[in-house]
Amino acid sequence: MPEKKIVTVLKCMCSPMALAGTGIALMGTGIIPLDQDVVNVAEPFIGPLNIPVKPFLTFLGVSKIFAIGSLWGYGPLPKSVALGGLTLSASCACIGHFKLSETLKSIAAFSTIISLAIIAMLDNDDENKEKKE
After folding, report:
1. Distance between CA atoms of 60 and 66, rounded to whole angstroms?
2. Contacts of 23 (CB under 8 A, 6+ apart)
3. Closest listed residue to residue 95, CA positions, set 27, 32, 33, 48
4. Rounded CA gap, 82 and 70, in Å?
5. What is the C-alpha separation between 124 and 130, in angstroms, rounded?
């Protein structure tokens, strides 16, 4: 059962993404002002596709909140979708920070990717529930 403890610790480490998602969603809806650093990190991905910043941030923020909830079993998304979305978000953050020469933030985003991969490998709570039914 040490895997269960490891998964719990890693979920706790990834959970602040929901708080970041709240801030990002509030920026996207205009409730709080846009943080130019957030826009700069997103620019390599939304710029070439001409995606407007505010709707993108609203979608990204709400998605992060739902995904973290789902990771703990309380959200509307299947766990595989939640893990995939959080991994994609962290991957984009890693690349965006790296392009801005923000090495420490890029490493932090990369460690989130690794944590999510370990959660995906070790967390089999959904499989156990299906077997019992």
Report:
1. 10
2. 32, 35, 61
3. 48
4. 6
5. 10
The length of the chain in residues reads: 133
Q: What is the pLDDT of residues 13-52, one digit of tens each?
A: 888 889 999 999 999 999 999 999 999 999 998 989 999 9
Identify each DSSP E strand in 2-129 by its residue range: none
CA distances from 86 to 68, 92, 129 (A): 8, 10, 23
Q: How far apart are CA 62 and CA 79, in angstroms?
A: 16
Counting beta carbons within 10 angstroms of the beta carbon of residue 50, is it exposed (0 to 12), middle (13 to 18) or buried (19 or more)? exposed
Nearest to 21 by CA among 79, 81, 68: 68
